[in-house]
Amino acid sequence: xxxxxxxxxxxxxxxxxxxxxxxxxxxxxxxxxxxxxxxxxxxxxxxxxxxxxxxxxxxxxxxxxxxxxxxxxxxxxxxxxxxxxxxxxxxxxxxxxxxxxxxxxxxxxxxxxxxxxxxxxxxxxxxxxxxxxxxxxxxxxxxxxxxxxxxxxxxxxxxxxxxxxxxxxxxxxxxxxxxxxxxxxxxxxxxxxxxxxxxxxxxxxxxxxxxxxxxxxxxxxxxxx
Length: 225
Fold this sequence. Notes:
four-stranded antiparallel β-sheet, alpha+beta, 225 residues
């Protein structure tokens, strides 16, 4: 039997992440109408950084969401693992290759039923939807979540950067004013959350999709137990 406390840890973290996501969306949306309009576009520039983003506040909120979503998955494995098999290595592995997952599972998923290990394997980034993976790129969202979590935890805090994007970028003449671009129907204002690595970037909508992916993982793994 699963202890009530273990199961509630997963559900409570998921609930808390959802609450913080709602707060993060409201905070981000309330910021966007107040951006400065004195920036000037260079030729072929598609993105503009807003200079008055409350980076520490929004970044900390995003970090809270990231940590709670990732912890949900580790708590899930702890919830299911037999007490005798639990250790400091008991965790939910996220790997980009099947071989990498197999090695990680041997350390992190000791004592779990085969059906549960198979369920965890099925949500990995290397398994696409056509082969039983998560829908809507859920496996890749888990990989992005894991990357954010590791960088935020070990290297540098998540920061918020406001951008005004226009696609395609080559539609912008050199010297186009910020205010002119902001009035374009193609222009999209958003707050993006970034880390030190240039390839790590996400919006509130992406975090929402991560939340749904984690929910799907919890449901799938608990069903398999």
